[in-house]
Give the backbone structure.
Amino acid sequence: MSRIRRDWFSKTLAGAVLGFTLAIALAGLYAWAGPGGLAAPNKFQVVMWLIAPIWLTTLSLCFLFFSGLRAWLWLGGANLIAYAGLFACRHFLR
């Protein structure tokens, strides 16, 4: 069984930067595709408070990656998928 490498700085940076952008995208997806759409009253408050738990969960789970490179690649891929979904929602759910 291989051990998890200890490149903490790269993993932390990946979780902080890409985790934040992923949290923004997922909160935006909830805003567009969630119940009531963008017109739901006071939905902006829920969306705003969703960002912190998503970001901190991503930041804490990024240390489970085998290496910092894998953290960057997986979180980067998750960001691409999330932003593609966000742009699709913005295009189709007007």
About this structure: The chain has one domain: 8-92. The radius of gyration is 15 Å. Residues 13 and 50 are 21 Å apart (CA to CA).
